[in-house]
Model the fold of this input.
Amino acid sequence: MTQHFTPRVATESEQALYLELYRRMWLIRRFEDEVQALFLKSLVHGTTHLCSGQEAGCVGVASALTEADRVSCTYRGHGHALALGVDPQALMDELLGRATGIDGGRAGSMNVVALDNGLIGCFGIVGGSIAAATGVGLALKRAGEGAVSVAFFGDGTANHGYFHECLNFAKVFDLPVVFVCENNRYGEFTPYEDVTAGEISDRPATLGIPSITIDGNDMWKVRETATEAVERARRGEGPQFIESMTYRFVGHSRSDPGRYRKPGELDEWRTRDPLLVGRRGLMERHGVEESALDALEQEVDDQVRQVSAAAIEAPFPEPYQATEFKDG
Ligand SMILES: Cc1ncc(C[n+]2csc(CCOP(=O)(O)OP(=O)(O)O)c2C)c(N)n1
Ligand SMILES: [Mg+2]
Done:
């Protein structure tokens, strides 16, 4: 039993834990900056959806999980994969379609699966992550070992059928599912308030699902809230809902310049960059020296440069050979 509940992120001390979360946030930001640069050189096939600005949600929730728990994500899933501990090299190789990628180069940017890290999948279909996590929640409940399933999805997804259907199902069967709505204020190019009636977090409450809205750019707040929600689900108290308010600093996907943003909005959110909040908090709350943070960032920057160079050199997979189809 204890082995099942090994935390995904080491917890020797509060300072060490939050430094590690900060390191992961910095890695996600730099990794995705590099992904964008490689994309512009046509080295990333298909499309990309970056989570720049949303890193605290990824690492805060991941830090509340154990190795027995399972997670599903959207197409915006690179950050969540890194937060769950996926090897950056294996992920970068995957995005460049290389044989050494975490899924042999066949999944690409939108559909990463990393079962060893608890990531059951990233889904291009809006709402797919909710359905997958709910199904996994049913399986985990039947297994009876106290593991929890987590669904990440966006604000736009709260208006899709999957959302309503799965929340209802999860509550009726009291499944151990934590629904995490990452409200980045836009579904593609549409402000969420233009297409959303009422508050998203009121919807689960009508089904009897505990629901909370938090500052999703504060890794302390996200970790604390996620830990409580996960523990309730683990104890058999059924599904839980977190609306994590955040903002993406980049466009929806590869070529979106974000012209729909309101004047000043991006600058305002940049003052609440999760990396700034994290840096400040580590110094003020945990007494971390600025020089230690500079060194940590430098180390990650070097790592990302090496990862990128190695991915470019990595081999492509052999062409797919369809197995012969026989009638009857
Ligand atoms: C079923 C389905 N409908 C529409 C789309 C097209 N689509 C891709 S992303 C997206 C917006 C989703 O917004 P949100 O849930 O807020 O997530 P975000 O991209 O902001 O993280 C849409 C409509 C899709 N992929 N799948
Ligand atoms: Mg959104």
Summary: The first helix runs from residue 14 to 40. The longest strand covers residues 177-183.
